[in-house]
Amino acid sequence: MYYQYKKQFQQALVEWFEQEKRDLPWRKTKDPYKIWVSEVMLQQTRVDTVIPYYNRFMQEFPTPEALAKAPEEKLLKQWEGLGYYSRARNLQDGVREVVETYGGKVPDNRPEISKLKGVGPYTAGAVLSIAYNKAEHAVDGNVMRVLSRVLLIDEDIAIPKTKKTFEQAVMELIDTEHPSQFNQGLMELGALVCTPTSPKCLLCPVREYCTAFNEGNPEELPVKTKKVKTKNLHYDVFVVQNEKDQFLLEKRPEKGLLANMWQFPMLEQTDIEEHTNEAKLADIYKLELINRDQLMSFKHVFSHLVWHMDSYVISAQQIGDAPDNSNWFSIEEMKELPMPVPMQKIWQKFNLNL
Q1: N or C: which terminal CB in the chain sees fewer CB atoms within 10 Å?
Q2: How far apart are CA 153 and CA 354, in angstroms?
Q3: 223 CB-contact burial (10 Å; exposed 0-12 / middle 13-18 / buried 19+)
């Protein structure tokens, strides 16, 4: 296509987006805070999954001030199940900066908004273009896929510096009169039509400008090297219940994976004989174990990590001081604690077995 058909390309894309765009709750507002929240939630998460989370989050934290003053445990509880919890913490830190430094108004320029915690080039561009209608690039995976095919860009998108190529391409192509619709149109096209496999080229509003379509090889783009090898870890997880129908939970460290979330005691498996982790459990948490039943086995996949989990129900009595990061909770108290998805899965299975 190169850029000689730029005006026609812009018009075709913007008109298609206006006619075909999905009815999504964050498209009913121009509030930069709400659009910011939606963009953070949509990172690494499907749209259908995000919708109910977004609606609940907006009810709980309708303004930057409400989110800024929320306790972290309440924030994590609202985020529970979305994963990648550092997104939520960074969002809250960034919103606090907005409240403290900018009087609750999200900055409307790239230099200032980019200084906020957790706001990278994509999020900055998305908020600026969608909320403020600024002609700024917002390059995500969908946009790179669309433009790699339209412009026949064969640089490896797994290499971070390649993103600059696509950012420059967007700034060359962007409809300066309708930047919001243009950027959202690229994203929507990648989500609905220009998909990773089996792109629906015959439904594409810009196929006549697409170099890869005209050359007959859209599925060969974008170029992307394979991900790093996944690491597998094996754990025993114990749902420990005492005579008062309380359950033993421990809080994860403040830094790292699933930071500050609550979980059932979890011990990595070794190649030594079976059930040695039960002895460790009794020793670490100062318990007298009464009986044990197997609950479920499953795996939980993170981006570069897989947890293989065998879970058990243990009846026990406390006979000494447990670690400082652990405590006993009633069922009602547990409802207020943020727990990661694999722990929720175990808890649901436990309740089904009652």
Answers
A1: C
A2: 57
A3: middle
Residue pair 118/91 in contact (Cβ under 8 Å)? The answer is: yes
Condensed to tens digits (0 to 9), the pLDDT of residues 286-320 reads: 999 999 999 999 999 998 899 999 999 999 999 99
The CATH number given to 231-352 is 3.90.79.10
Radius of gyration of the chain (CA): 24
CA distance 233 to 269: 8
Residue 340: name the closest of 263, 266, 265 by CA.
263
Tell me the sheet residues that pair with 251. Answer: 262
What's the one-letter identity of residue 42? L
Q: Are 140 and 122 in contact (CB under 8 A)?
A: yes
Please state the separation of Cα 81 from the chain's center in Å.
10
Find out whether 47 and 25 touch, Cβ atoms under 8 Å: no
Confidence (pLDDT) at 342: 96
The domain made up of 6-220 has a fold known as Endonuclease III; domain 1 (1.10.340)
pLDDT for position 72:
95
- Residue 296 pairs in a beta bridge with 311
- The per-residue pLDDT for range 27-82, each reduced to its tens digit, is 999 999 999 999 999 998 999 999 999 999 999 999 999 999 999 999 999 999 99
This prediction has a pTM of 0.86
249 membership: H or E segment, kind and range: strand 247-251
The pair of structure tokens assigned to 146 is: 């669309």
91 in Cβ contact with 36 (< 8 Å): yes
- Identify the H or E element spanning 65: helix 64-68
Q: How far apart are CA 2 and CA 311, in angstroms?
A: 57
333 has catalytic annotation: no
Domains 6-220 and 231-352 share a fold: no
What residues does each domain of the chain span? 6-220, 231-352
DSSP H helical ranges for 193-300: 211-215, 276-285
Give the C-alpha separation, 331 to 335, whole Å: 7
